[in-house]
Amino acid sequence: MLFSVPVWGWACVAGVVSVGFVATLRVIARGVSPGGDVRPDREKRRARWRAYAVVLLLLALLLGANLLRPEPASAILFLYSAMFLAIPMALLPVRGRIVRAVLAQRRNPHAPAKPDRFMTVWICAVLSCAVIGAVAALMTTPYGHAG
Q1: Is residue 36 assigned to a domain?
Q2: Is 114 in contact with 108 (CB distance < 8 Å)?
Q3: Residue-number span of the structural domain to which 18 is assigned
Q4: Is 78 inside a domain boundary?
Q5: Is 53 contained in some domain?
Q6: Helix then strand then coil, % of the chain, to nearest 5
Q7: pLDDT per position in the chain (147 positions), as tens?
C-alpha cells in the first residue's frame, strides 16, 4: 500500500517536501542574523535568497541522483521525504530556544556554551522516532526484505 504510489508520485512528494524544508529553514533562521555583517539590507536579502536557491539546487541534484539509480526509487524517495519532513518537525517547536541560545552566545562569545537539555532531548527524540518509523514502514514492504 505504501509503495503503490508510482515513482513519479514519490518524486513529486519529495519535491514538495524539499520546497517546504527550505521554506521552514527561512522561518527558523528569522530573527538570527550574522553578527558583524555590514552589507546593505538589499545585499543581505540577495545573499540569503542565493543561499536558499543553492540549498534547493543541491536537494534537486540529490533527488535526481536518486532517480537515476537502477533499483526502484520509491523506497529511497520515501525515506528522503520522511527525513526532510522530520527535520522541521524537530526544530520548529524549539525554535525560540535555538534563537535565544544563538543570541546569548553572540552577546558573550567567550562564555562557555550551555547545553539546553530539553532542546537536545526533543530534537534527538523526534529524529529517532522518524528514523525508526520510516525504517519500520519500509521493513513491512517487499522492499524491506532481501531476496
Answers
A1: yes
A2: no
A3: 7-144
A4: yes
A5: yes
A6: 75, 0, 25
A7: 566 777 788 888 888 998 898 888 888 877 666 565 556 777 777 877 888 889 889 988 888 887 787 777 778 888 888 999 999 999 999 998 988 888 888 888 888 878 889 999 999 999 999 999 998 888 887 765 554
DSSP 40-71: -HHHHHHHHHHHHHHHHHHHHHHHHHHHTSSS
Total tally of structural domains belonging to the chain: 1
Amino acid identity, position 101: A
Grid coordinates standing for 57?
539546487
Q: Which of 79, 29, 37 is nearest to 55 (CA)?
A: 29
Q: Cell triple for residue 47?
A: 545573499
For residue 10, give the 3-state DSSP assignment.
Answer: helix
